[in-house]
Amino acid sequence: MKTYPKTVANLYRKTGIEMINAKFAVININFQDQFMYVKLMDGSIFEVALKYLPVLNKSTEKERNNWELCGNGFAICWPDLNNFILTSSELIRNFK
């Protein structure tokens, strides 16, 4: 199994993203119907249609719900799917 915090930290270093903007830190996520709802540290909640997240869209409910926060809340990781989303990525900027 991958060690996600190191992977996430390496991606931030490689892309030059600084993890200083705490408002993008995730505190919880949940799924309902065909949407993922993400709650951020600043209290905002946004939804993302699973059709925009192909790996999650094709996953089972059990795989989807086995998630963990990585990189001090700056990434959401799915160990069963070997997948993660950075919260300062285009995903957040496009859907927040």
Description of the molecule:
The protein is an alpha+beta fold. The strands form 2 sheets. It has a 3-stranded antiparallel β-sheet, with no helix packed on it. A 3-stranded antiparallel β-sheet has the order 4-5-6. The chain has helices spanning 4-15, 54-57, 61-65, 90-95, and strands spanning 26-32, 35-40, 45-49, 68-70, 75-78, 83-86. It has one domain: NE0471 N-terminal domain-like. A hairpin with a 4-residue loop joins strand 5 (75-78) and strand 6. The protein is globular. It is built from 4 helices and 6 strands, in the order αβββααβββα.
Brief summary of the model shown:
By secondary structure, this protein is α+β, with helices and mostly antiparallel strands.
Mean pLDDT: 77
Q: How many distinct helices? A: 4
Main sheet strand line-up: 1-2-3
Coarse morphology: globular
Major sheet description: 3 strands, antiparallel
CATH topology value: NE0471 N-terminal domain-like
Give the fraction of residues assigned to helices. 25-40%
Q: List segments where confidence is low: pLDDT < 50 over at least 5 consecutive residues.
A: 1-9, 14-20
CATH architecture: 2-Layer Sandwich
Radius of gyration: 13 Å
> Strand portion, in percent?
25-35%
Number of strand elements: 6
* Derived structural class: alpha+beta
Spatial gap, N to C terminus: 31 Å
List keywords for this structure.
DUF2442, 6 strands, DUF2442 domain-containing protein, single chain, alpha+beta, disordered N terminus, three-stranded antiparallel sheet, 96 residues
